[in-house]
Amino acid sequence: MFFTTAFREQYWSKSDGWKYHDTCFCEWYGISCNVQLDWNGLSGPIPDEFTELIELKELNLNFNSLDKLPETIYELKQLERLEIGYCSLTSLPSTFGMLESLNYLDVESNKLEKFTR
């Protein structure tokens, strides 16, 4: 699975269900049809494949070491809440303003140099 490889699953605190492709992703640790992976030791860029979760409404990745968000983030058309605080991000993708359903954004304590919406 691309998530476990991209985010180096061997270092995760918990990863129940992530190894089994025959289970609904709503049954995986940290996901209840919303992704809650804050404080989970994730590192590196968020892979483009993350945006294949097109029904995603809430995404919490606070307190991880993330390099960047995918340019394809605009494909999360249902995304209403995005929490990416304390992730060491320096920029947001140019497509970020296309998140039309977004009504809550937490980017606290990142290293953002420029923010446009």
TrEMBL record:
Source domain of life: Eukaryota
Keywords for this protein: Leucine-rich repeat, Repeat
Keyword Repeat (UniProt): yes
PANTHER family in alphabetical order: PTHR48051, RAS SUPPRESSOR PROTEIN 1 (PTHR48051:SF1)
Protein known as: Leucine rich repeat containing protein
Biological source species: Anaeramoeba flamelloides
